[in-house]
Design a protein that fits this description.
The complex is a heterodimer of chains A (about 375) and B (about 350). With about 375 residues, chain A is of the alpha+beta class. Chain A has 16 helices and 8 strands. The chains are: A alpha+beta (about 375), B mainly alpha (about 350).
């Protein structure tokens, strides 16, 4: 194994202990590998080793046409597959200069926000689980299950939806969609105070998170951190506000920022984002216009020669899709700017000097999805 | 009212009549061993099942429901699976200590049971330093955990064992001081004396504020001593995978697992004995119909009922609270619980001397 000898060599010097957290470890939520140098319980150094789930999605995309490559992105950040697909569609549509029907626009935003809610619910459960409370996970899944049911009705699948296509969405909404979403919103709004009682108000949870894993505003900017992680450090970086796509510029919602810079701030930002997502869905759910759900497109899409870039706000941060086209049916080169990779790079700054318990809390609050890092 | 006292007395006298005292003593020892092992098997089966049902109740799921009616044989099936697994010893471990550690933990848990009064006259050994014996022996359990962590040759195990060592040694102080409050009020270390002193009311009712403070601190310290959430630093599965028993599998792991539940029962039984009157029934006032009805419930039911109530409370903690960090855990003990218990002990002394308790 590569680096193995190096890891063994370093242990024993200076009285430090080197432990491997991962690739199989409950705290990393996937096959992420950290080499942590410890002095007792205090973290001296943290080194992420990535690549265990690298599938070379970018290279694969080069041999797939502009309809097909969208589907590979569902497998990147599998918790926000709608949003990933949306980003790819936006880039392709920019190249084709397609006009998207209003109905498709609204459906896309609705799906994006439902995805964000589902993703944040899973994050909430798993963060509480990292910190040691096992029960919230099940409560979060109770509500998340309703969202996946809604997705299943309309898209046919529950996790990797592949619902968005260049020009709109693949199929029309299920007839029950609006009613089911309303039922879900009602239940979720009833249960949110329960979430707060169970975790937010808990004194142990607050002690575990407040002042832990500090990421200053300067560090957040220099590491390119995005999403709720950056917003908790006071960086205004919500793509939905700064570079609106879809109909976000017509919607009323707030960009949540916090200047706490710690794990607690990241927790609060995500909790508030859930409320904002509910607010967005409430605005749209009764205002879905009639019409086509897909624009008329050619059977084979060909992007004109050039470079196209689109950016969206996923549940974890900013996802950029960069397409270089030579004018053919397949992209010449595709690059994804995934939020997880940049957020991971700030891990060492956040956990240095903390305890192992802090590392786990920070891991939970940053909400990394490993296939998104490795791609 | 029937009691187990008559049964134990008649068995004892019959054995002494039939055999010489030495033989009778040996037979009694064998009977006790069988009963203790039976109790442990019972605890293992019941508490694991109870934990699963309690957790599933709190986590909006059904829990075990396939093996037997309501899944009551789930634990038996799990035990069977653990027994038939290979007793695996990894390379590069200290084989002797590695294999010894589960037995230390288990034997300690069994020895602690000696002075417990399960019902009137149903007690293995009514030693005059009973409660002292319990605190002294139960603190030996940490040796087993440290041995397991050290001999496993695994860094996670080592971290878990060191955490556990720091934690148990710290929380022993609070637990000991809260026990002293009751010893002070009773004026005796003998378990039967402590229980008899609660015939007219349990210490938690009679002992004023010191007893209530002591009870709360005792429950916190007991949770910490048994290494259960929110104080499960030694295992901390999201941090240390499984802590000190990472390398254990099969029956050796099962012994740790069983010892954990036995320890939970033991600390809860101590709590029930000291604060909730052991096998004494609940009485209000004197000679009313309520007391008469309560007297009809056998002492052993009272004892196990109280112990299981406390066990439920501890399980409740486990499934609702997040875990503390190791430094917060030690801060809680040394900066808050220990000073409070010391002051509480002083208060209890004043009350015991002046006789202000009921």
């Amino acid at each position: 194994m590569y680096r193995q000898s190096e890891i063994l060599d370093r242990s024993g010097h200076d009285g430090y202990m080197v432990i491997n957290v991962g690739p199989q470890h409950p705290a990393t939520h996937g096959v992420l590998h950290f080499v942590i140098t410890l002095n007792g319980e205090t973290i001296i150094k943290l080194e992420p080793h990535i690549g265990y789930i690298h599938r070379s999605i970018e290279k694969m995309c080069e041999s797939l046409n502009y309809r097909q490559f969208v589907y590979t992105t569902s497998r990147m950040d599998y918790l926000s597959s709608h949003i990933n697909n949306h980003a790819c569609c936006l880039a392709v549509e920019k190249g084709l200069e397609l006009e998207i029907p209003p109905r498709a626009q609204i459906i896309r935003i609705l799906m994006d926000e439902l995805t964000r809610l589902a993703s944040h619910q899973l994050w909430w459960g798993s963060m509480a689980m990292d910190i040691g409370a096992l029960t919230p996970f099940f409560h979060a899944f109770r509500e998340r299950e309703m969202i996946t049911d809604i997705f299943e009705d309309t898209c046919g699948t529950r996790l990797t939806m592949n619902y968005m296509v260049p020009g709109g969405v693949m199929a029309d909404l299920h007839p029950d969609f609006q009613q089911k979403v309303k039922v879900f919103l009602k239940q979720f709004q009833e249960k949110l105070p329960e979430y707060d009682e169970l975790v937010t108000g808990n004194i142990i949870f607050q002690n575990r998170t407040k002042g832990v894993g500090i990421l200053s505003k300067e560090d957040a900017i220099s590491y390119g951190v995005s999403g709720p992680t950056a917003r908790a450090s006071g960086v205004s970086c919500d793509v939905r506000k700064l570079y609106p796509y879809g109909v976000y510029d017509k919607l009323d919602f707030k960009e949540i920022t916090d200047t706490g810079c710690d794990t607690w701030a990241r927790y609060i930002v995500r909790m508030e984002e859930m409320r904002q997502s509910i607010h967005i869905i409430e605005q749209l759910i009764d205002n879905i216009p009639d019409g086509d759900f897909q624009a008329k497109t050619k059977a084979v899409l060909k992007l004109p020669k050039g470079e196209y870039y689109s950016r969206v706000e996923t549940a974890r941060g900013e996802l950029g899709v960069y397409i270089v086209s030579e004018g053919g049916t397949t992209p010449y080169r595709i690059k994804f700017r995934s939020p997880g990779f940049s957020n991971l790079s700030a891990m060492e700054t956040m956990v240095k000097g903390g305890k192992i318990g802090d590392f786990v809390a920070v891991m939970g609050s940053v909400d990394l999805v490993i296939p998104d890092i490795d791609r | 009212m029937w009691s187990l006292e008559n049964i134990t007395k008649s068995v004892d006298s019959w054995l002494n009549l039939q055999f010489s005292p030495t033989i009778a003593f040996l037979i009694e020892a064998v009977i006790i061993m069988v009963l203790v092992i039976g109790l442990f098997a019972f605890l293992g089966l019941v508490l694991v099942y109870m934990e699963r049902k309690v957790s599933s109740f709190m986590q909006i799921r059904l829990g075990p429901n396939r093996v037997g009616p309501m899944g009551i044989f789930q634990t038996a099936a799990d035990t069977l699976k653990l027994i038939v697994k290979e007793g695996f010893t990894p390379n590069n471990v200290d084989k002797f200590l590695f294999n010894l550690a589960p037995f230390i933990v288990m034997v300690v848990a069994m020895v602690v049971l000696a002075p417990f009064a399960f019902s009137k006259g149903f007690q293995i050994w009514d030693v005059n330093v009973g409660i002292f014996f319990i605190t002294a022996v139960s603190s030996l359990g940490v040796i087993g955990i440290l041995t397991a962590g050290w001999s496993s040759n695994n860094k996670y195990s080592l971290l878990g064992a060191m955490r556990s060592g720091a934690q148990i040694v710290s929380y022993e102080l609070s637990a000991g001081l809260t026990i002293l409050v009751i010893v002070m009020l009773t004026g005796s270390l003998r378990i039967s004396d402590i229980i008899n002193a609660q015939a007219d009311g349990w210490w938690i009712f009679k002992g004023h504020i010191p007893a209530i403070i002591a009870f709360v601190i005792y429950i916190i310290a007991a949770t910490a001593e048994t290494n259960r959430a929110p104080f499960d630093m030694a295992e901390a599965e999201s941090e240390l995978t499984a802590g000190f028993h990472t390398e254990y599998s099969g029956m050796k792991f099962a012994l740790f697992f069983l010892a954990e539940y036995a320890n939970v029962f033991i600390v809860c039984a101590i709590g029930a004995t000291l604060f909730l009157g052991g096998w004494m029934p609940l009485h209000f006032g004197e000679n009313n119909w309520f007391n008469t009805i309560m007297d009809y419930i056998p002492g052993i039911v009272w004892f196990f009922g109280k112990a299981f109530f406390l066990i439920f409370v501890i399980m409740w903690f486990r499934w609702t609270f997040p875990r503390l960090r190791i430094d917060q855990l030690l801060n809680l003990e040394w900066k808050y619980l220990l000073p409070i218990s010391l002051f509480n002990l002083l208060l209890a002394t004043v009350i015991a001397i002046t006789g202000w308790h009921f």
